[in-house]
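Worked example (supplementary).
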Amino acid sequence: MNETGVITTLRPWLRHLARRRGRLAIGALLMLLALMAALGLLALSGWFITATGLTGLALAAGAAVTLDVYVPGGGIRAFALTRTLARYGERLYNHDTVLRLLADLRGHLFSVLAALDLASLSRRRASDWLNRLTADIDSLDSLFLRLLAPALVALVAILALSGFVALWAPLAGGSVALVLGVAWVWLTFGQARWGMAASRRRVTELERLRGRVIEHLTGMAELETFGALAEQRQRLDAIEARLREDQRQLGRIAALGLSLGGLMVGLAWLLAFWVGATLWEAERLSGPVLVMIPLAIMALNEAVMALPMAFTQFGATLAAAERLNALEAARVAPGDLATRRLPTAGPLSLQLDRVSLRYPGALKAALADVSLTLAVGERVALCGPSGSGKSSLAALVARQLRPDSGALYLGGCAVEHLDEEALRRRLAVLTQDTELFDDSLAANLWLGDPQASEAALWQRLDDVELGDWARELPHGLATRVGEGGRRLSGGQARRVALARLMLRDPGLVLLDEPFNGLDAPLARRLAARLDQWLEGRSVIVFSHHHEPEAQPLPGVNRRVTLPDQG
Amino acid sequence: MTSSLTARSWLARLARAERKSLGLAVVAGLVVGLMTILQMATLAWLVSALVIDAVRPASLLPGFALLAVAMVLRALAQWWQENAGIQASLRVRAEARRVLLDHLQSLGPVGLTGHHTASLANRVVDQVEALDGYVARFLPQMRLAVLVPLVILGVVLTLDWLAALFMLLAAPLIPLFMALVGMGAERLNREQFETVSRLSRHFIDRVRGITTLQLFGVGRQATEEVHAAADAYRVRSMRTLRIAFLSSAVLEFFAAVAIAVVAMYVGFGLLGYISFGPADQLTLFSGLLVLLLAPEFFQPLRSLSQHYHDRAAALGAAEGMVELLNEGSPRQGHVPSVPRGKGLVELDAACVRHGERGQVLGPLDLTLEAGEVLGISGPSGVGKSTLLQLLAGFVEPSAGEHRAVPGLRLAWMDQRPLLVHGSLADNLRLAAPQSSDAALRDALQRVGLGDLLTALPAGLETPLGERGVGLSGGQAQRLALARIFLSEAPVVLLDEPTASLDADSEARVLAAFSALIEQGRTLVIASHRAAPLALASRRLTLQEQGGHGDE
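After joint prediction of all chains, the assembly is encoded as:
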């Protein structure tokens, strides 16, 4: 990848950083201050000792010389104190910044995800993908603290110090600038470039290894009975060996950078010292300054040593940025024409006109030329085996997917032209899988209607026969439901989802297997209450049962069957 | 595997195997320290020669050359130290992965149930990676943080015993610092880890439910909430960081003060202001060298504190691994004895017991004859799957006996057939690596996937799985069946093979079962559905409390 490619990839993330430029600048300045204080401490101490040594000799020889010990002494104390405080302050301040950036990036990425269509989302919802996503954010989040700031601070320190040395010995200053400048370029750009291929590959190899291990574990019954475990294990080992080779290479590159960095700093002070010594011989440089110069350069070690490790792994950061950029590119921007409103009350009609949908990579279309008309206030049961496209149809109506051809009309208006807010308020969908959030029972219900009173929540809980259960809970509505609602039983979670749905006031309701996981008598009782709520709304109920009596569907007037596409 | 394995003992065991490389890293690190001392001494000597003795630089060239040599040697030793650490770390990680995978294989399909596969994979892949910094850097540095300061102390002692006394006073503080740094870093790490993982869980929870959030039209609120949660965690973790960073600040402070104190002491000593102790014997050489060595005395400790989070990360990761390694396998590797009758497999009063669930099957007598089709039915939870697992050898009887014809080959299929990342052919050849393409085509034809094959432009080389062609549940099931046709295993164990299929797909799968039966294979079908059980030549109905009846 060339330089412009790198910059294009990182640009959106640098722009994010730029929003906090004030904090970043202060953080970098604190870093610089800590480094300069460390440098000053060692340099001034060297100067002081040499000056006192020379004065001491002169005094012993009986000369009447004086040396002001208080100013340098005060300087040494000030540097020591500054170094400690600046280092502490810098770490604290920069960690605060990094955490702020993390909040920014997480928020931003979430808004990107919220705008993805269902097809891109469902491909990406596996938990290992989510873990990688958070890891990618973390690696971009530390872009400033690990890469940008240390590199910048080191460069400024190198230039400032070269200038300072040049005040006394221009030749020494020049050679320091040259040697350390080359070292800086190597330790940043050189290391990044050299480690690029391996560090990018390392991320993909880890990914591949993870995939193979998952295969190995989920398929163990088959693999073991077929006697294929050993062979499969060999493939796994081959990936691991490749990964190890990359890591060895990366380790070597970083180690070389580290050794080289140390050597270059050493070379720089050796050169400066030699030049200083010749100047001292020519009496154009004082003894204390002769000692001060190499000591100051020596202190740069600290700044240079942080670079090679971080920059060798630069490819991994770049790969993370690329993955997140790809995600951003998949975002579906709402059209400019999406401004049409819907009547704020009353049932809505729905019309599907020769709608087709095919998922990328799928062998067959999920929906082929499907037409359907739902009159105002009508209730229709849509039947079909699994894979016949019922969920796809619901996602099309909810504008979570776009059809490849054909059109959908809600309340007489093309779905793609509807105002987002109007669409969400007037359409309610109960998905087949119950999705609850790791929050309180009340917060989960409030998703249905953020303005609902607690009394309204209790009313709906009573409707789904969870009121008594919830009243017995020590924390009542504040009870947390756990990750994905896992602290509730499957049936309870389904009923919470129903209660959440019934807090809304839609004109069209899509119900996907509404009583999934509930026993028949309870389902019948809930169906009666759901029936009341569905009064004055248009309804489609999805079911994969062929027999009408298998599931108590509330007052359905018509039955439509989708053909099997599988 | 001993049952009392702890995170520390597991890490220690892994490190012990690499003590040679790690020892090498310590030796190399010590050489780095010695070369640093040599550099400083040469520099101090050169300064003294130039400034005090007014020697011409040209005649000091050997001194300058010695400096250059020391620098090069130091760089080489550092390179050596790093590489030895990397070697050790790579081997430790490979070994940890090998042990973990071996253990998972010995647990087998039954031992793995109840584990989340993604979290197991996370332990085998990512958590093993978390051992890197600990092995490569922390372990060598732990020795160096003691050795290098001791050497420096020795050198300073020969130069000026009072300055050495300063350091010696600081020396007993070093273990104290280490504990302080350790406590700080460990707490920092624990809290940070906890904070970050809670934050990640919140984020993941919201992303997982993002379609619901879209449907409720609350995407924007949720975005703000994600931001607010991250910011709230920032405020909370800054409170901890303020304290946690103090420990390294203390270390920093001592390193800075050591330089300042030594500079003042040496300076005033050289001026002759200090009339006690060895101060009047100070020279520019000894004074400067003491000053140059003062920061080096603290440097190894500062490096150690930088690597401390590696240790905490490794301990955290090791805990997850050890938890897994301490899990006992449901089988001890005992080999079934030879059947007494002419059955392929015999169960004699066999029982299976699972730790906390107690006895889940048996006592059960069963003889599986060649060529029969045994249908197993019964209410859910009665042990249908356990019986199949027992026949397959994934679990051993806790009482009674399991006998099988030696070398009996089995095939297995359940509701979630394995699709490996690779081509259609790769997936089929899992069962019979030597099969020809013609045999693969034939097997696909038998399970009714011939049409699919002709529809695929790349044919048998079509990639499956992630980013490849997506198969429907029924197609995947039939692909697994095609594997069974290829495998030629005489006994086929089918665990709820059609549970997740609709009626049409089920019919196609059942037709393939019939073809297997025609080939004379022995089938054992466990199902709660009527259709697959209708193929059975003999039925076994399992009842609660271990009772069962033949039909």
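Two points are worth noting when inspecting this output. Chain A has a mean pLDDT of 89. Chain A touches chain B through 144 residues (CB under 8 Å).
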